[in-house]
Write a structure and sequence with these properties.
By secondary structure, the protein is an alpha/beta fold. It contains 17 helices and five strands. β1 and β2 form a beta hairpin. The protein starts with 10 loop residues before the first helix and ends with a helix.
Length: about 375
């Protein structure tokens, strides 16, 4: 079998790759556009850690190709440097330096000089974390505590509101982690992100299956009261199963207003086992703080009517193929993958261990809570209802 030669992609082709990658398409899908295998695409995207590099632009003060061609013609005609500078409206030192950098008057070629200037200009700016070692250490310490870059950035802004040198954006943290040439954060810190991939993925990327199953007598999420929708009142939860290997699973519950997380040990995924576990868990909470539950279309809650009869908690179901309708729970399940990576058998975790993981999540600041923690908000809700 004849091996195909490596393709050199044009800037336009690379731009198309980045457009598709940012829309959430996979490497395999993008590769089909070019009749190539996915490693060919990965080679391009991985060079900057899956983060689209900024479009390069020439400085407005730099000589243009047209000006360099004028310089080349003027040198052939024997014009002096001062005459060339006057004709172009440039300083004589600019023209002198341009000629000297590119072989002198006898060897000067406009196209070669223009390409050389473009190549010299490709000098990445030193990132903020490399310039401020103390800030980089603070960021690294928080990453090791499983804080996300966005949580770190928000916490820094809240903790040091008047000191810009002690603040850094979450995007800078991501770029420093995924683009190792920046040299401020070690690659090993990637292991502490919620998703330990080598390249940053688009927020639009999903591997969610179209439907988990069909169940009867559901109450649609569209019938959920307005005070549940706007998260104004605590006591309304979102739930799902987080799956591990060997057919193991955990029930995950998130309160919509406070983002407070609770985990429930589930021995099996059949509806009787799941509903029994949820009923037992619901009886541990005050009635005012558990008024409704929103679930996806998974068959594990087929016996939802028994749950409602036992707890007086109304269950609402998302539309098919609409996981974003339980956005808080979807985000939480992503956070939980730091503690339960895909392929982990979660059946061996005790309820006490699950409670400890939930505690750690509830003590992490959240951007949506103005970088307060879920436990702070939940305690406020308990005080108000008490």
């Amino acid at each position: 079998m004849k091996r195909r030669t490596r393709i050199q992609y044009t800037d336009a082709q690379k731009g198309l790759m980045w457009d598709r990658w940012q829309k959430g398409e996979s490497l395999h899908q993008i590769a089909k556009l070019f009749d190539r295998h996915h490693p060919s695409i990965r080679r391009v995207l991985a060079a900057t850690g899956g983060i689209r590099p900024p479009t390069r632009r020439r400085s407005v003060r730099a000589l243009t190709l047209a000006e360099r061609e004028d310089v080349s013609r003027a040198l052939v005609a024997g014009h002096s440097i001062r005459a060339i500078a006057a004709a172009l409206g440039r300083a004589p030192s600019t023209i002198s330096r341009e000629i000297r950098r590119n072989g002198g008057a006898e060897r000067y070629r406009a196209s070669n000089a223009d390409q050389a200037a473009w190549d010299r200009a490709h000098r990445p700016k030193t990132c903020k974390l490399a310039l401020h070692p103390a800030l980089a250490k603070r960021v690294a310490d928080k990453l090791q505590q499983q804080w996300s870059p966005q949580q770190i950035a928000g916490w820094l802004m809240r903790t040091f509101p008047d000191d810009a040198a002690c603040q850094v954006s979450h995007e800078t943290i991501y770029r420093t982690l995924f683009i190792q040439s920046r040299g401020a954060l070690k690659k090993e810190l990637l292991e502490h992100l919620r998703r330990t991939r080598a390249m940053r993925r688009s927020r639009h990327h999903t591997q969610k299956t179209p439907d988990h199953g069909r169940i009867c007598d559901t109450v649609s999420i569209r019938e959920r009261p307005a005070d549940v929708e706007d998260r104004a009142v605590p006591g309304h939860w979102e739930g799902d199963l987080l799956f591990g290997s060997s057919n193991s699973q955990i029930a995950t519950l998130v309160e919509r207003s406070t983002r407070y997380v609770m985990l429930v040990k589930v021995d099996r995924k059949d509806t009787k086992t799941v509903v029994d576990a949820l009923i037992e868990h619901a009886r541990q909470l005050p009635n005012q703080l558990y008024q409704s539950l929103t679930w996806d279309r998974g068959k594990e809650l087929a016996d939802h009517r028994r749950f409602t009869l036992a707890t007086d908690i109304q269950v609402y179901f998302c539309d098919p193929q609409s996981p974003w309708q339980r956005g808080s729970n979807e985000n939480t399940n992503g956070l939980l993958r730091q503690y339960f990576p895909k392929g982990t058998d979660v059946s061996g975790f005790t309820q006490a261990q699950l409670d400890e993981v939930a505690r750690r999540l509830n003590e992490r600041p959240r951007k949506t809570l103005n970088f307060e923690t879920p436990i702070e908000r939940y305690r406020q809700a308990v005080a108000l209802t008490g």
